[in-house]
Give the backbone structure.
Amino acid sequence: MKTIKLLDVVALTVDLPEHNLRQGQVGTVVEILAHGTAFEVEFSDSNGHTYNSLGLRPDQIMVLHYEPIYE
């Protein structure tokens, strides 16, 4: 499993209806919390306006990859 880093682009793996967020919505990691056991993720619209920002556990997000991964 890839370590989540600051400024990684991530997608939700769960619905969070209490925050008006659904599985698949894309955000950016803007802060690493609790020694890497949680992450502040900012969700912005296509104009760059933030519409939500909240702390999430690693099991609630997945890192998106735009290039091949060679291990």
The chain has a mean pLDDT of 94. The chain has no helices and five strands.
